[in-house]
């Protein structure tokens, strides 16, 4: 999903997410799953890395596992 | 810059009437701003008056200095206009800067007062915040040494920020340039603003132009693609979206957006637009992606609001441009820089932009930077500043910072130090948008045969691969 930002290869996406990447990711997740994420500081803090973002999204998006 | 008189140095900042005359006029009940609620002219004037009372109560007078360190909010707008009405010089500090960066900036400008947020509500992707402001006096603060009304900071190549100052006459002249652009939003229209109102595009092109023309200024509740389009859809009035190229890419990532007949165009500035984006934007929304070229030093310089000249832009009224040795130069009556400055930036009445450009039949094409400045989501970052901040850390032996799809830092560490220590230290010294997306730790940085650190991306990538 993140590789769509700047048309990168998936291998070019680093582990740490900056705020633009995070904004991009949230927009894509909301669009794909038709949800509005609760954007608390806690959610943001959890999404600073790709691994953290996957965990956080799995928690806030019930049933989303396996589709990302 | 025709028609702008140079103010005298050491005078109180401005003729403060310009705020009431040009920004706070209009019928009481007209909605001017839309944050969490609509703010009409009367309510905006009340907020400005209250902020003015608080600044005066602390002791701010004409010719005094105040720094604002606030997120985008009604509070920020009220204190900015209030301080200008008093005739003070206002410095704007991005609320995302670290305390370390703020301390450095305040030290340099010697502000007498600081307005910051005691409390701030609003999530990270909200276009505005609810702020409880605190006004504090600073020990050792100085009154304004110049008649400038506005002081802004830009990432600098010498490690410290550039301090850029503008007079109220200069801001008024920029508003007049916007007035001459028929495609730019005005009364009876709306602007959905995505750019920061601390920086020149969002401040003058967004906030001040909307206040000046009577266009309604909308700060979206959510700065996501859906949130931005929802803000457009809330009214039938013709609407222009103003943002940075990142926002245009974000919007074009939506597969099948609902038709938005009220969307007039989107206008972006702050960095170059990638070639595929204008076409994709028009295909997705059926309207133009316009572009603008501007600088903190001058405001808007050239535009292509209909997207018909891309990648070129047409100089705005009164701009005197030339290209010297491949670099764009712009005529200015006086240097825009305060304090210590790089003498190569302003030469004999010309601002040397460090932008590589071509001028052909009156049209300007900006090709890229001639120095180490890059743009991260429209915010300027000088890689030299980032490199110096990293190299100055006790954990770091040497560092090279370059831009390759994002800010990348290649570094070697002192004995026993870890990358995590570097990461933690950088959160104290550099604002989030200046921090490297990637820290690559190498045993040693590659060097040329003469011993200089290699700065070529390919060589550093090879060194990284070899170290694995």
UniProtKB/TrEMBL annotation, chain A:
UniProt name for this protein: Acyl carrier protein
InterPro entries in the record: ACP-like_sf
Organism: Actinokineospora diospyrosa
SUPFAM superfamilies per record: ACP-like
From TrEMBL, chain B:
Biological source species: Actinokineospora diospyrosa
SUPFAM superfamilies listed in its UniProt record: Acetyl-CoA synthetase-like
UniProt entry tagged with the keyword Ligase: yes
Pfam families: AMP-binding (PF00501), AMP-binding_C (PF13193)
Domain named AMP-dependent synthetase/ligase: residues: 43-313
The entry's keywords: Ligase
Keyword Methyltransferase: no
PROSITE patterns to which the protein is assigned, alphabetical: AMP_BINDING
Protein name: Acyl-CoA synthetase (AMP-forming)/AMP-acid ligase II
GO-annotated molecular function: ligase activity
Domain called AMP-binding enzyme C-terminal: residue spans: 385-452
Matches recorded under PANTHER family: LONG-CHAIN-FATTY-ACID--COA LIGASE, NONRIBOSOMAL PEPTIDE SYNTHASE PES1 (EUROFUNG)-RELATED
